[in-house]
Write a structure and sequence with these properties.
The protein is an alpha+beta fold. The chain has 1 helix and 5 strands; from the N terminus they run βββββα. It is 17% helix and 39% strand. It is elongated, with a radius of gyration of 21 Å. The model has no long low-confidence stretch (mean pLDDT 86).
Length: 102
């Protein structure tokens, strides 16, 4: 729940306090890969409401987060959670999340 409060003053100096509230749901998923794991950008982009961040370093980190409005039905909520949680797996080819030995 996001709450926003602000103050309004009219020309005569009278002050009114106003507030707005908005319900949003946020889902975050993090996947850390092995040291030398291969990464490949998926051919199709994620849905517009899903953000993906890839952080290079000793171990590659892929973070996906999705933000969608208000309380929704449980069936829709489960579907959206699954969409966000599968997004980091689209960035790695099958079987390459483990360490490469050459």
């Amino acid at each position: 729940m996001r709450n926003r409060k602000y103050r309004k003053r009219n020309a005569r100096g009278k002050v009114k306090f106003k507030s707005k509230s908005k319900t949003v749901q946020l889902v975050r998923v993090t996947r850390r890969l092995a040291k030398d794991a291969a990464v490949r950008r998926p051919s199709s982009p994620p849905p517009r409401w899903v953000r993906v961040q890839v952080k290079q370093g000793r171990r590659l980190v892929i973070r996906a987060s999705g933000k969608f409005p208000g309380p929704v039905e449980e069936r829709i909520l489960v579907d959206r959670i699954l969409q966000v949680s599968t997004e980091p797996f689209r960035w790695t080819p099958p079987g390459t999340a483990a360490r490469r030995t050459t």
